[in-house]
Amino acid sequence: MSVTRRAGLAAALSAALLCAGQLIPAVAAADPEPAPPSPTPTQATDPAAAPGLLHNITYKARADGTSRGATVAYKADDHNINSEQPTLLPGQTFEINTVMSDPKLAGMELTIQWPYGSNLHCEILVDDQTVVQADQFIAPRVFRVKDDPLYGTLQCGAPLDVPAAGQLPAPAPTTVPAPPE
After folding, report:
1. Structural domain that includes position 121
2. For residue 130, how far is the Cα from the chain centroid?
């Protein structure tokens, strides 16, 4: 073999090796990303337990029947309660969205006036997943029900009258004794 031929063969071989090197992925020499901290058992089973996370809460209420004077009360956030008086006709759904840091505090009440009766339905969705759903039939009444103050009310989710953590409960009403005669 001549020197020229050897130089040409060496050039062709080095070009082939250069092209083959382009096809094989290179190994990175940089340090890998540190692994994220492993979740606590509570976080692994309940994504709502992650601290500092805000959750989308959707309240839905429906009354299938005659229901004048409907009132929907709901937790607007972790500490406040809001209420609306929607017109609930059969087939219409009242829906409102809010954001809460603790979705376990989400709760609502749907109330209709007597003497009306209706099938009441409520739902609470946390991050587009239904977590609470309730249905109740309220029969029409001629007279007020005296022994059941919540007649005509459907409660859904957390109760609205329980104070959130860190809040003082409402003071109990005090009675002043009558002066002696």
Report:
1. 54-157
2. 8
* Total structural domains within the chain: 1
User: Do the domain assignments include residue 81?
Assistant: yes
The residues of the chain scoring below 70 in pLDDT are: 1-51, 115, 144-145, 148-149, 162-181
13 assigned to some structural domain: no
pLDDT in tens, 11-49: 666 666 555 555 555 555 555 555 555 554 444 445 555
State the pTM of this model: 0.60
